[in-house]
Every structure is written in structure tokens, then in C-alpha cells.
From TrEMBL:
<keyword id="KW-0472">Membrane</keyword>
<keyword id="KW-0430">Lectin</keyword>
<feature type="transmembrane region" description="Helical">
    <location>
        <begin position="36"/>
        <end position="57"/>
    </location>
</feature>
<dbReference type="GO" id="GO:0030246">
    <property type="term" value="F:carbohydrate binding"/>
</dbReference>
<dbReference type="InterPro" id="IPR033989">
    <property type="entry name" value="CD209-like_CTLD"/>
</dbReference>
<keyword id="KW-0175">Coiled coil</keyword>
<dbReference type="InterPro" id="IPR051004">
    <property type="entry name" value="DC-SIGN_domain-containing"/>
</dbReference>
<feature type="coiled-coil region">
    <location>
        <begin position="61"/>
        <end position="88"/>
    </location>
</feature>
<dbReference type="InterPro" id="IPR016187">
    <property type="entry name" value="CTDL_fold"/>
</dbReference>
<dbReference type="Pfam" id="PF00059">
    <property type="entry name" value="Lectin_C"/>
</dbReference>
<dbReference type="InterPro" id="IPR016186">
    <property type="entry name" value="C-type_lectin-like/link_sf"/>
</dbReference>
<feature type="domain" description="C-type lectin">
    <location>
        <begin position="88"/>
        <end position="208"/>
    </location>
</feature>
<keyword id="KW-0812">Transmembrane</keyword>
<dbReference type="InterPro" id="IPR001304">
    <property type="entry name" value="C-type_lectin-like"/>
</dbReference>
<keyword id="KW-1133">Transmembrane helix</keyword>
<protein>
    <recommendedName>
        <fullName>C-type lectin domain-containing protein</fullName>
    </recommendedName>
</protein>
Length: 209
């Protein structure tokens, strides 16, 4: 009986150890499976992020290519404008360095043997627009007779490059003309950038010699 009992205990112990081992193996397998699922999910997330990144890069590259094409075309057009202007004789344009009224800006130019710029062709308008990055006076006004625009050489305006709705002689107090072109605003065009303003407004002027 004693021997039989000892054998039974040994068998029970063996069964217990086998059961423990089986449970540990099962738990380890479950942990492994969870790990595998987690790795798969991480991998899928990384794939999605890479895909999004590739799409964004592709869009960004397309935008850059369009911008480069636009700037190249603009540069070629400006070179043609510059060559065309130079055919009519050497030209010199410069901007005043201080903010002044229209009359003071004109005087600034005259003190340097020049006058406020006269713009009478598309190429000159485009070229002057390419030089400026702020609102500037040009040599046009209707100070003498309201509605009759005259250049500083006393010639009458033939072709205007007005912003939409201008000149509006706002508050019946706008007689001097500024060029207002922002090239980063797509709705603005270098051929539509003039506005009448009160002559006392302070801004720089474009001189032509
Ligand atoms: Ca006016
Ligand atoms: Ca105006």
C-alpha cells in the first residue's frame, strides 16, 4: 500500500508538472500572438504614413514645378520687355528712398535729373511692376482737371492699367496715381495695378531718367 501510494503521488506530481508546462506554453503562445498582431498593426500604420507622405511629396513637387514654370515664363517675358525698352534708348529707373507725398516724390526725382515714371506700354507696365514690392507713386495725376489724367510731361493718358473699380476718386479726394501690385496674390495682375489716392499719402515713387 505504501509503494502504491508513493507511485500515485509521483504520477500526480508528474501530471501537475505537465499541466503547468502546458499552461506556460499556452500563455507564451498567446503572448507571442499578441506581439505578432501588434507588430502587424504597427507595420500597417507605418505603410499608411509612408503612403500619405509620398502623396504629399508628390503634390508639393507638382506645385513647385508649376511655380518654376510660371517664374521662368515671367522671367523670359521681363527679359523681352527689358530688351524692348532698351531699343528705344538707354533707360534708368530708380525708386525714392523715403516715404513722401506725390509732389515731394516728384521733387525727389527732379532733384536727381529725373521725373516720376511715365508708363505708356504693356512692356513698360510689366517691367515697372516687376521692380516694386510696395505701393509707389507714378507720374500720373488728375490734379488740374478732375477725371482728366495727365502725365508729368503734360501728355494725356491714353492707355490705363487700372485695378478693378479704379480710378474712383474716393471722397472726391483722389488725384494722384499709385502702382499697387502684389505678385504673390494670384488675383492681381501686373497689367491691372493702378489706383488713385489722396496726393498727400506718403509712399515711395518710381523715378525715370
Ligand atoms: Ca481724381
Ligand atoms: Ca482710388
Amino acid at each position: 500500500i505504501f509503494m502504491y501510494t508513493e507511485m500515485l503521488i509521483t504520477d500526480l506530481d508528474l501530471e501537475h508538472r505537465v499541466a503547468t508546462k502546458l499552461r506556460e506554453t499556452l500563455e507564451s503562445t498567446v503572448r507571442g500572438s499578441r506581439c505578432l498582431v501588434l507588430i502587424t498593426v504597427c507595420f500597417q500604420v507605418i505603410c499608411v504614413l509612408l503612403l500619405i507622405n509620398n502623396i504629399l511629396l508628390s503634390l508639393s513637387r507638382k506645385n513647385l514645378e508649376t511655380r518654376v514654370e510660371y517664374l521662368t515664363a515671367e522671367k523670359d517675358q521681363l527679359q523681352r520687355d527689358f530688351d524692348s525698352l532698351n531699343k528705344k534708348g538707354p533707360v534708368c529707373f530708380f525708386m525714392s528712398t523715403e516715404l513722401k507725398s506725390w509732389s515731394e516724390s516728384r521733387q525727389y526725382c527732379r532733384d536727381r535729373g529725373a521725373d516720376l515714371v511715365i508708363i505708356n506700354t504693356d512692356e513698360k507696365q510689366r517691367f515697372i511692376s516687376s521692380l516694386v514690392s510696395e505701393r509707389v507713386w507714378v507720374g500720373l495725376s488728375d490734379t488740374e482737371n478732375e477725371g482728366i489724367m495727365k502725365w508729368v510731361d503734360n501728355s494725356t493718358l491714353k492707355q490705363g492699367f487700372w485695378l478693378k473699380g479704379e480710378p474712383n476718386n474716393y471722397y472726391e479726394n483722389e488725384d494722384c496715381i499709385e502702382l499697387y501690385y502684389k505678385r504673390d496674390q494670384v488675383e492681381m495682375s501686373p497689367l491691372n495695378s493702378w489706383n488713385d489716392q489722396p496726393c498727400s499719402e506718403k509712399k515711395k515713387g518710381i523715378c525715370e531718367k
